[in-house]
Amino acid sequence: MSNAVMNTYGRLNVAFERGDGAWLIDDKGNRYLDALAGIGVVALGHTHPAVTKTIADQSNQLLHTSNLYQIPAQIELADRLTALSGMDNAFLANSGAEANECAIKICRLYGRQKGIDQPTIIVADAAFHGRTLATLTASGSRKVQAGFEPLVNGFIRAPFNDAAAIESMSKNKNIVAIMVEPVQGEGGIQVPDEGYLAELRRICDEHDWFLLLDEIQSGNGRTGSYFNYQQSNILPDLVTTAKGLGNGIPIGVCLARGKAADVFKPGNHGSTFGGNPFACAVGNTVVKTIVDEHLPARAAVLGTRMLEGFRSRLASRNNVKDIRGIGLMIGIELDSPCGELVQSALDKGLLINVTADSVIRLLPPLIISDEEADQIVDIVSELIEAI
């Protein structure tokens, strides 16, 4: 390892040279089944032929102009995403944190336009929205916030999956929005009760608040529908996504509807790189592939298969507190910290992640086979059984 790279990650001692579908090959020729997909990014797997072709073709044509000009690929991607999401317009950015910053700014400006001097957004305990100053303040982890004070004003916190607690805050006249992940990822794959999002939608409608859904991790087919909120039969005012949208090429988007879609005017927001021809060409290919190959439905089937496999294997294990998930967003919570299992899995040729200290997080590519799904279940179960 080199001291030239800032010490911001506890990196594993492995370096990958090539990828093939759900597999990565390191510089020694060893193969690893990727059950993390670059933290939910490589939804179509590594070196997907359609993505590879788009990268080659677009890089030979045009990488970047700027948002001072029309960008046909950006317009095409915005059209695709608004049609899929039921939203009205889109701002293209470079990451999930940037998409969330855009959404937060829309909420604040909307509040100001209503005459609210201190626009305030309700956020959830254990949430994760990014590492910029605003998004880490919106996040619910002291670990990511510690040392970066003073944090950004304008956020108040409520328990996740508790609509009544949010409703009890409604007398606060500064509130302009609720910001929540439909499924918490970094928080330990927390899936709320059925009806939670519908209750949040009702509360927002009653109080003229925006409902802002962070689908950075849960979007793009991962949980069984293109966006998770579509399983609740509601529409948010704002939805953000990134990760699986570019299959490894940095891209993010903030989608807006109704009043939220009309808040920004020229000069209110911008991005040098966001929505450039290269990233949007790849995004179009990724979205088209996810839809045309019915990968959200496939993720639902595979997720059920894996959850059933884990529950069958681990039902009698006293050290397993919970097995939960939706689609290919799966968490296994143990009764004690289990970060050492990341290295143990690596030794067995499997890439996993541990989040919230004691939750094994699995985010495999949406293109894994039944056999690969079963292999993930077998190896992870063996690791837990060996504790």
Description:
With 387 residues, the chain is α/β, with parallel strands linked by helices. It folds into 2 domains: 16-47 and 294-385, Aspartate Aminotransferase, domain 1 (Alpha-Beta Complex); 52-292, Type I PLP-dependent aspartate aminotransferase-like (Major domain) (Aspartate Aminotransferase, domain 2), CATH 3.40.640.10. It has helices at 37-40, 49-59, 72-85, 96-113, 133-138, 142-145, 163-167, 196-207, 277-292, 295-314, 341-347, 370-385, and strands at 16-20, 23-26, 31-34, 89-93, 120-124, 155-158, 175-180, 210-214, 238-241, 252-256, 320-325, 330-334, 350-351, 353-355, 359-362. The longest helix has 20 residues, at 295-314. The relative contact order is 0.17.
Short description:
This protein is α/β, with parallel strands linked by helices and 387 residues long. 34% of the residues lie in helices and 17% in strands.
